[in-house]
Amino acid sequence: MRLKVTLLSVFTFAGLAAQNIQNNPGSNHGNKFEQLGTILPTPNIYRTASGSPGHGYWQNRADYNISAYLDEDKRNLKGSETITYYNNSPDDLDYIWLQLDENEASSINKANYPTSTTLPKTINDQKLKITELPEKDNGYGVHLEKVTDETGNALRYTVNKTMMRIDLPKILKKGEKFTLKIDWNYNITNRIKMGGRGGYENFPEDGNDLYTMTQWYPRMCVYSDFHGWQNHQFTGRGEFALAFGNFKVSMNVPADHVVGGTGECKNYEQVLSSEQLSRYRKAQSSSEPVEIVTLDEAKKAEKNRSKQRKTWVFEANNVRDFAWTSSRKFIWDGMGVVIPENNNKVMAMSFYGKEAYGLYRKFSTKAVAHTIKTYSEFTIPYPYPVAQSVEAANGMEYPMICFNFGRTEKDGTYSEGTKNGMIGVIIHEVGHNFFPMIINSDERQWTWMDEGLNTFTEYLTEERWDNKFPSKRGPAWTIVDYMKLPKDQLEPIMSNSENIVQFGPNAYSKPATGLNILRETIMGRELFDKAYKTYAKRWAFKHPEPADFFRTMEDASGEDLDWFWRGWFYGTDPVDIAIDKVTIATPDLDAVPAPKEVKYKVDKALVNDFEDLSKIRNREDKNITFYVDKDKEAQDFYYRYDRGQEKVDQNKEYSLTQDNDMALDKQQKEKFKNIQAYQIDFVNKGGLVMPIILEFTFEDGTKLYDKSSAQIWRLNEQKATKTYYFEKKLKSIQLDPMRETADIDTSNNFWSNDGSTSETSRFQVFKQKHEGAVRGGANGKVNPMQAAGKK
Questions:
Q1: Which of 769, 742, 761, 741 is nearest to 695 (CA)?
Q2: Residue 426: which pLDDT band, with cuts at 50, 70 and 90?
Q3: Cβ contact 108:205 at 8 Å
Q4: HEC profile for 221-233?
Q5: CB 734 within 8 A of CB 759
Q6: What is the pLDDT of residues 732-743, one digit of tens each?
């Protein structure tokens, strides 16, 4: 439908501005397209300019052997661990750092990162806390009983809030290992009342507890080439950086408890009944979830608290952490899953109380299986033997096990919002097996590398689960309300976890949205998916930094994306591109120049008015031989004229007849008679550059789509112009019709030849069509993703 400009070069257009805005950038260049340069760290032997690990890359390792004793009556956990730490770095270490995350629950050993407080509108016994200065010890936090080397000699240590430094008896050199032992205990917190990721939840109706044992043992900090010791305090928000290693863990619990944990249980034969063991083996080859511990068995166990005990033994290799859960309330189901990319056979399993049975029995294990299969397609094949979901009223992730919400009403019914929220949380938390449990970024420093990348892949996985799934994070239009906020309420994605005000939008939604825009609008799916998979492969079981991600995405795709990282990740500008003006012109097909005689005079030869120092010195230098071309002397009048070899009368007129070979015949005039030209002027009001995406609607009802890459703004970041030539008349122009650039103001995205300034976009039509169905399915109940909070 659109003709090439070269075919129309013989026309003249009335009313069309001759000046091209792009050719006059003026003072509009704000460095949006400059390379990140010194913003990124200098590549070295550990991390290359391509974004891959360098030939000198290293990382340290920590192996654990842990015994734990769960005292349900005292709600206390007692533990003993042996850590073997391997120094693979080129550095000599004279001390090591460990994390004591449970100290965050202590009133005296917490990280003490305060925030402003205000008087509440209402108050109750849970909110009311009498102020005590200084604060008394509440009895929570890690109680260290003994810290020794492997022979039993006491080690010197210092506890600084949630971190513990151990001074080594001798320097730990490259290639050496050090073994230490720690005995400890702590009082388990009520995580429903006190918050936090680990602890217990009590069910008053049956008097039982459900334990989520997370961040429960002293854990080695990461020592890295880019940070040294990552020993930033744990405040409850920024999670953790951990070294990979092998775990052997035994948990002594009441005999009627069911235990799930990171890795594989090595003694099911000793802890399960014969019927349960038979069901487990059946589940391994089943394509549908099989109840290993049934609803009836769980209800029966709730009524009788056993005084006997059992020890469950788990092993996990090449993981960065270990978490577990224990309760007599659990129903437990599972099914076998095969990952096609590596033919890995995985047990997908779920643990949940009767309160969640109506939802978890239907969906949880299937969502686990779907997640690891879909993530394997987009990143790396899932390498572990187990993937588990535990219903625990909140969301948090650890290797091979995660904790989620999803309970029905007392009568077993549930809202559509609760169901979708539960499925979304399960996908999100199971997905964390990849980010950051395998692609092991540091969330204590960069939350988005964990949460943002995972939320984006969650969005892809939700789409594969149900094409109509109401995803709240990922689609470009869902970030608009956040991007509209005043600048003083925003911070760049590249901000430390502890300093982010709008934590959910900043660390989860905005990076996920940015990656979706890259995939759908800027790079295209094929290029993006290959680059994203390359990043996952390069940094699986390693410690990537932001520059490694940015560089890999460019290196593997051949796309220069520095402008995008600069704007979307380092800046706070929103997208607001507006159609400023549309100029219409029609061709005058008869306005073709006739043959005529052109008069001209001979100018002076063009030489510089001032001879610089170099010219003078070169002329005086006897060692310099100047280029001489006899043909040039003979043929070039100006060459002879400049050197005084020929004189010219500059007042004399010369004549030249200009032939016209551009005249149109009758057939060509008929062909081009309906051509109209449209110059569209755009203004970048928001500051963040993006592609210009247009939907043209013609008077006959047909449509045409066109997209210009973001590079159209490279010479003028404030204004751009595009000219189109059509054979039929335009009715309207819609900018970004599917709202794929997160434009915060769509009221300036429309032009019509009848003077109207707005039209329902394709996206709005789609949204209105389906909103009724979504509202009707929610039964008017609150979405628990918003009420309970999705991690």
A1: 761
A2: very high
A3: no
A4: CCEECCCEECCCC
A5: yes
A6: 999 999 999 999
